[in-house]
Amino acid sequence: METEVVPTRSRKVRRGYKFVLLLGLAALIASACETARPDAEALINLVNNERYSRSIPFVVENIDLAVEADRWAVEMRNSCTLKHRPDLSVGLPPGWTVVAENVGVGSSVGGVHDAFMGSSEHRGHILNSGFTNLGVGAVWGNCFGSHQVWIVEIFIRIP
Q: Is 114:50 a contact under the CB 8 Å cutoff?
């Protein structure tokens, strides 16, 4: 009687495959977004610079929030309508306790950020020390004959 030897993979190797698979999935999700990485980084830096200048802890970027923010920015751009998401809890990661959203449109990322800081409600979201995570969507498009950037910032607290 012959015995067939089937090679087994160690747990470490299987974990390695899972890790690579998760990295690939994250890259696929990120590539499906329309938000240009430099625009997202600029907004996150602008938010954290405002917080730093007031000794407020930084917010960290959250990929789940970024995907949802991008989805909504695309929706606003495609409909040429500035509006908040009807259900702010959609697309949020598990464990969140508080959510807020800033939406804006303008001719530049910095200009929209300045407008947020000029509004007490939007500035309050940016400077709220209770928020720990941020997702940003910033997509460009032509509406009403003007090339503009449509921006969504989603803030949450994860204890």
A: no
Q: How many other CB atoms sit within 10 Å of the CB of residue 155?
A: 23
Secondary structure (H, E, C), the chain: CCCCCCCCCCHHHHHHHHHHHHHHHHHHHHHHCCCCHHHHHHHHHHHHHHHHCCCCCCCEECHHHHHHHHHHHHHHHHHCCCCCCCCCCCCCCCCCCEEEEEEEEECCHHHHHHHHHCCHHHHHHHHCCCCCEEEEEEEEEEECCEEEEEEEEEEEECC
With a cut of 50, list the residues of the chain below it in pLDDT: 1-14, 16-31
What's the rounded Cα separation, in Å, for the pair 152 and 155?
A: 10
Which pLDDT score, from 0 to 100, does residue 92 have? 94
Please tell me the distance from the alpha carbon of residue 146 to that of residue 155, in angstroms, as a whole number.
28
- pTM for the full model? 0.80
* CA–CA separation, 100 and 18 (whole Å): 33
